[in-house]
Specification:
The protein has 2 domains: 227 residues, Spore Coat Polysaccharide Biosynthesis Protein SpsA, Chain A (Alpha-Beta Complex), CATH 3.90.550; 209 residues, UDP N-Acetylglucosamine Acyltransferase, domain 1. Helix content is 21%, strand content 31%. Strands 12, 13, 15, 16, 18, 19, 21, 22, 24, 25, 27 and 29 form a 12-stranded parallel beta sheet that branches. Strands 14-17-20-23-26-28-30-33-36 form a 9-stranded parallel beta sheet, with no helix packed on it. Strands 5-4-1-6-10-7-11 form a 7-stranded mixed beta sheet, with helices on both faces. By secondary structure, it is an alpha/beta fold. It binds uridine-diphosphate-N-acetylglucosamine and calcium ion.
Length: 472
């Protein structure tokens, strides 16, 4: 797959085993908050993409260990990112070598690891500008680490520079605090001959990409290094402890970002918000709330305590009272949900609609100003406007084989404890009597009654008392 587009390609290395995670899942798919590790690096690349000079025109990811899972994630969430297979993981240099056909058409190649979730777009933009301005064959980012253990050390002596991996470093080299970030840009015409010169004669028996720096410098090629100031940005995630601590600091950054933009929280320390969530100002969030996926919350909305929202859309002034589990659904302007409610799979509460206590709504629309205040299940239903759904109403939507629709019109009154045996329709202005099992259309304006007639037996109670006293 030779790419003829010039410009800069970005290659994310995501094939490694992540041995230190001790997980059956590929490291780059382990989650931080609700998104895989890989999401964060790909998101940081996003604003750098474009066609001009100093922009990234195409992104690929090297996959290998459990590569099917990683490719499936890419095709589902990042369809423009091209997976390239590294069947045997022989090191970061080998990963770049196997991708040669893809990158050889570019002018420049950026290489970055898939396990650095704190990386900022502005850093990558600065690196791109630096490389474009310097005319170097390689520009790499280093930083000064408080604890350099595990990183490749940047060894400088006069104008000579090389990178020595932790496991290959001498005791003296191990004291060096300047370390390799794992992020580089190479000029492709220079990379081409050098990539074949890497060997694997080192402690790990791997082809190390950072060895290119020493090789190029020794050959008198211009190599440019930028020492970045913010160490935290380059922290790699290699262990479950790293995953947790990165998650904790990303959680904090996200929450603080929302606070600074006018979102109110009573107890920010108990609120969890994913990186893809958008929240407008003047929203208030109570303690112990989780908001995930592509949830979007508009001005004036409120999310009550102990609620979990995923891929939700809340229009202006929507109110999630509390204890709600809401996913893939929509709350229109001024609608109210909860407490103790489940909305899922495309449920819609229309403007000023109410779905209250102990209600579950799946793949159904509750129209404007309609109400289901208590104890209701609506599945595969459409409810018109100004309709009241009485307590205990259930759409019997599943016949054991398929899901069937229930259609309820405008201004209807569904009596408490109505069983709506789908497929069934309640036309506009119709009523159902409480406790009915409705299995046929209730026509416009009619009352559907489907329950046994009541029979009253006079004097039954006193006769029972007499019978019981005789028996004693
Ligand atoms: C690497 C660098 C080190 C640097 C550090 C910064 C090497 C040899 N070392 O070390 O100098 O300080 O990053 O975080 O590059 N990968 C592949 N295929 C492979 C091996 C690795 O795709 O065959 C991927 C991994 O999935 C990972 C990235 O490359 O995303 C880095 O690999 P990792 O093993 O984490 O390297 P480090 O030991 O952290
Ligand atoms: Ca790493």
């Amino acid at each position: 797959m030779t790419c003829s587009t010039a410009g800069t390609g970005a290659l994310v290395l995501a094939a490694g085993k992540g041995t230190r995670m001790k997980s059956d899942h590929p490291k780059v798919l382990l989650p931080i908050l609700d998104q895989p590790l890989l999401y964060y690096v790909l998101s940081a690349l996003e604003p750098c993409r474009g066609t001009g000079r100093g922009k990234i025109s195409s992104v690929s990811a090297v996959v290998g260990h459990k590569g099917e899972e990683v490719s499936a994630y890419l095709s589902g969430s990042w369809p423009s990112v091209i997976p390239l297979w590294q069947h045997e993981q022989l090191g970061t240099g080998h990963a770049v070598r196997i991708a040669r056909e893809w990158w050889s058409g570019f002018d420049n190649l950026m290489v970055l690891p898939g396990d650095v979730p704190h990386l900022q777009s502005s850093t990558l933009e600065a690196l791109l500008a630096d490389h474009a301005g310097s005319g170097a064959d390689c520009t790499f980012l280093s930083f000064s680490a408080a604890d350099p253990r595990g990183y490749g050390r940047v060894v400088r002596s006069g104008s000579a520079v090389s990178i020595v991996e932790d496991r290959d470093a001498t005791e003296e080299q191990k004291l060096i605090s300047e370390v390799n970030s794992g992020i580089y840009i190479f000029t492709v015409s220079a990379l081409r001959p050098f990539i074949d010169r890497l060997d694997n004669e080192n402690a790990q028996g791997e082809y190390y990409l950072p060895d290119l720096v020493g090789l190029m410098v020794r050959d008198g090629r211009p190599v440019n290094s930028t020492i970045a100031s913010r160490e935290a940005e380059f922290r790699g995630v290699n262990t479950p402890e790293h995953l947790w601590s990165s998650g904790e600091s990303i959680r904090r950054e996200i929450v603080e970002g929302h606070l600074s933009r006018g979102v109110r929280m009573m107890d920010p320390s108990s609120v969890w918000i994913g990186p893809a969530v958008t929240i407008e100002p003047d929203v208030s969030i109570d303690p112990f709330v989780q908001i995930w996926g592509k949830t979007a919350i508009a001005r004036g909305s409120h999310v009550g305590g102990f609620s979990i929202l995923r891929n939700m859309t809340l229009s202006e002034g929507a109110d999630v009272v509390s204890h709600a589990v809401l996913s893939d659904s929509r709350l229109e302007r001024g609608s109210r949900a909860g407490p103790f409610i489940v909305l899922r799979d495309g449920a819609v509460l229309g403007e000023d609609a109410l779905a209250g206590k102990f209600v579950e709504i799946k793949k159904s629309v509750l129209g404007k100003r309609s109400k289901a205040p208590h104890l209701t299940y609506l599945g595969d239903a459409s409810v018109g406007e100004d309709t009241n759904i009485g307590a205990g109403t259930i759409t019997c939507n599943y016949d054991g084989q398929r899901k069937n629709p229930t259609i309820i019109g405008n201004r209807c009154f569904i009596g408490s404890d109505t069983m709506l045996v789908a497929p069934v329709e309640i036309e506009d202005d119709a009523f159902t009597a409480a406790g009915s099992v409705i299995s046929r259309t209730v026509p416009e304006g009619a009352l559907g009654v489907a329950r046994a007639h009541q029979k009253n037996i006079d004097g039954w109670s006193s006769r029972r008392q007499r019978r019981e006293s005789k028996e004693q």
